[in-house]
Amino acid sequence: MEAIILCGGFATRLEPLTLFIPKPLLPIEGKPILDHIMDSLRGLEAKRVIISTNEKFEDQFRYWMSNNIARESGTPMELVVEPTTTNANKFGAIKGLDYLIKKLRVDDDVAIIAGDNYYSFDLKDAFESFGGRRAPLVLLRDVGSKEDAKRFGVVELEGQRVVRFEEKPQEPRTTMISTGIYMLPKDTLGKFDEYLRGGNNPDAPGYFLKWLASENPVYGFECKGEWFDIGTLDTYRSVFESHAKKR
Question: What is the mean pLDDT of the chain?
Fold first, then answer.
């Protein structure tokens, strides 16, 4: 399996912090969010870690790659740079994945992780669940509140199979949401191109998953442990301060 970490956004909701620092490199507990994501990958024994970013933040990620924990572990790393410089011309997550897969000719199962995820769980258990089925897997979190669920992709399950997926619904049917972490078998990677050629939304992965689940079995795996989507200044401040107190 290969790991893909999506860092191609411009994080305008976290400005002014992100005018010069990409969101995945903002610190929590004394190290970048991206370092915490790398910690979670140890259970995957990934053959390669691929970071996807944009031209604006290319230098920051190259510097991070020259000093990060993956170098110490010997995990091969690649940086793919999308030819974008502003939020107005960004690719979006799905278009960025399609670009990356074609550019590097990725031909393996993949774990896809949004670079603004901060979480405490290891991915080993989810990887074992994925390996048992060889079908697309979405890592889930029960946020316990339909009001909170409105901000995310909301999932409805029958057993462990995803039967309904709604991106940021006004009236969520459940409190189970997508964490922005997915595992896909290599035979589904061509689906990104097919999805985009259909004129579908190139950004939010939830729309792609809804489309994918309409014709392929997609499964959910509920994760235990803390998880935060670092999407706003208020969320980042809250997580930063609460974890600073634990140190």
Answer: 91
- For residue 217, whether the previous peptide bond is cis, meaning omega lies within 30 degrees of 0, is no
Residue 105 tokens read as 């000719």
Strand partners, 181: 113
Reply yes or no on whether the pLDDT at 246 is more than 90: no
pLDDT, tens digit, 9 for 90 and up, residues 202-213:
988 888 988 998
Could you tell me how many residues make up the chain? 247
Q: How many domains does the chain have?
A: 1
16 CB burial (10 A radius; 0-12, 13-18, 19+)? exposed
Residue 227 lies in domain: 2-246
Question: What's the 3-state SS for 163-180?
Answer: EEEEECCCCCCCCEEEEE
Q: Which pairing describes strands 137-142 and 219-222: parallel, antiparallel, or unpaired? A: parallel
Whole-model pTM: value is 0.93
Q: Please give the structure tokens belonging to residue 127.
A: 């990887």
Domain CATH number, residue 170: 3.90.550.10
How high is the pLDDT of residue 72? 67
Structure tokens at 13: 């909701």
Say how many CA atoms lie within 13 Å of 7 toward its Cβ. 34
Rounded (10°) angle between helices 93-104 and 205-213: 80
